[in-house]
Amino acid sequence: MSKRKDERTENKKRKAMAFLALVKSTEDNDTSPAKKSKVESQTGTTGSCNNGPIPQKEKSMSDEMYDEFKKKRKENKELIMQRPKVFLTLDELTRDNPHHVDDNGVKIRPPLFMSDVQHLLMFAVLQEYSSFKPRWCRLLRVGKITKVVAVVLDSLSAQEYERFPGSLPTLHQAFDIQADIIAPVQYASSVREDIMNVPIRLTSQADVVQLVKQKQKDGIKISPQFFKNTVAKTQLWQSYKNLKALMSNPLQSLELDSSAKPDSEIVAEAQNGLQDVGEDSPVSTFEQDKFDRRWLMLNSAQMAVEHIPMPGGESNRSFYGFKYTKKSYSKITRKSPLFAIDCEMIQTKASKMDLARVSIVDENLQVVYDSFVKPRAPVIDYVTQFSGITEEILAPVTTRVEDVQKVMTTCLPPDAILCGQSISSDLNSMKLFHPYIIDTSVIYNLTGTRQKTGLKKLTSIFLGRDIQSNSGGHCSVEDAMATMELVLLKLRNEMNFGDIKIKNVKTTDYPDTGLGHSGRDEDEGLDDSQLDNSCMTVTRSLELNGVSDKMKRKRLFFQQEGCKFIENFLHRMEKHSKKGKIIDEPVSVADYPVTVPVVSCSSDKESSKQTLAQLAENTFCFTHLYGYRNFLRTCGHGTDQDKPETAEELKKCLWRLDRRFWKILMGLPERSLFVVILPGREENGVVYSAKTFAKIT
């Protein structure tokens, strides 16, 4: 063993010898012939080495030289570890998403949205305090990042990037990563809204609770003035008021019939279809909720992370055949009814799990729909031990997934909240888009991580009974009932019930503010107009009056309306003692909340200069450059760009734009994150796709 160890040591020394020779030759380019001869004699790199094997004694390396090599290697490694690094993880994202598969079983990359860019920026700025880490890339040594700058090249798209590479050399040569994303215009939104509007999560309310508890412990009286000293505390005060206003009636016992029907009855009734739900009088037990049920809904960021199907990327082949659950949706309120859903799947020749049974129950644990479904592709495996489905059960079934879609579209209320355990699998198997979602695998967290607890274990712990124990397979009605009971149980308790990640958040932790319920809907008792203007946090850059119902329907998946569930990106930064600035044109200043610091610039040249100037006192800058948009307005759209004279002007415009953000890039401090966003646009009914780039300076 010692002999082999000696051989390995000699090999390392020989490699180190060559490395040192290379380093010294670089450092001493003007070395005299005498000194060069001395170096060659030490390292054994003489001109005669190429004529035959090097004698063993020339290959050897002194211990001093080997120590020098290790020292230099350590210094290089330490230098590398001082720099952040960003790289794509799209292959991992594609691999880990179980639902994006085409008919041939080939994995398809799930679509990326502007919220994914928001996650990268927020993680770079807030680090461990960020709500999400980016799912599409990885940022190493994020604590070493000094500044973060995002530049939006308004109206520019991926098509121009591909078509005019010579006019955009910085984009093509200087960036570490790039990724295609869905243009916000496809769902009636904008870059400004998608980046600046940050969904509020229950976990973020722990900051409010801890602040209140600490001040009360110190004997300080809690009042609006205490919270309103800074922009950050203004946001905490708004959250404080909102959560207090969401308090409902005292805890009432949950006495509902939780017994599931035997499988024999369900099989007999499977083809009877839907019992009439009725849109005018859906079952809702909201009076017994201890807090607003909307706080349990997944926001747009969580929906993307949990693989909930989201519109906007319908061109993706994995979304073929998907439908919306409603033609239009009404505003969600604390009274909106809950429906729990569970599906059973079987494996078909389409190399995926296809829908074979769907069951829906309401808040009274009454079955409102239960049907077996026959897949169109031939069945490979009925996985009866899990699905409870057999060939004999499906033989007489004529219901297809399209029939299930029609039932959902016709009979669900327009403000229905669908509940499920890992509900993404159910929605993908039914090929449905729905904006209002509660996932029991998210609202119950027993690990403190993203590792989920199964429905069987949750039911055993919190409901005290055993499910999925039948040797004949699972029963979807039984699972749907257990899911509904878990959601109702959470609503009858505190927000921290069953979730160790938000153990510090309790409804009862909030002292009386005089903003409690008075028998009215909280939307009536505490609407946006009654809040102080300094508390408004919603960034809005699109008038919805002229937007079609189809686009409004898409928008719901990305922009939940109302200030109560959204805070501004810069306000979130303020909570963690970080400062940021927005650089935008004068007409866009009104789109931001009045408490957000915005620098108005009338030209791209001024915007570029202001971006670098503001970095002296700010960690983050969000800058818009409008050169290309202004060109489109003055020189025309569409086919006009194909004219030779217009094409030349377009190239010059892109070149000037490239020089603008190149100057910003060159002026950034070392170890800064620089992000460029091409937001895309819609032109004559054609949508031009978006793209984003990122680089560590």
Automatic annotation (TrEMBL):
SMART domains: EXOIII (SM00479). Keywords: Exonuclease, Hydrolase, Nuclease, Nucleus. One of its GO terms (molecular function) is exonuclease activity. Residues 1-10 have a biased composition (Basic and acidic residues). Residues 521-530 have a biased composition (Acidic residues). PANTHER family: RNA EXONUCLEASE 5, RNA EXONUCLEASE REXO1 / RECO3 FAMILY MEMBER-RELATED. This is Exonuclease domain-containing protein. It comes from Dreissena polymorpha. The lineage of its organism: Eukaryota, Metazoa, Spiralia, Lophotrochozoa, Mollusca.
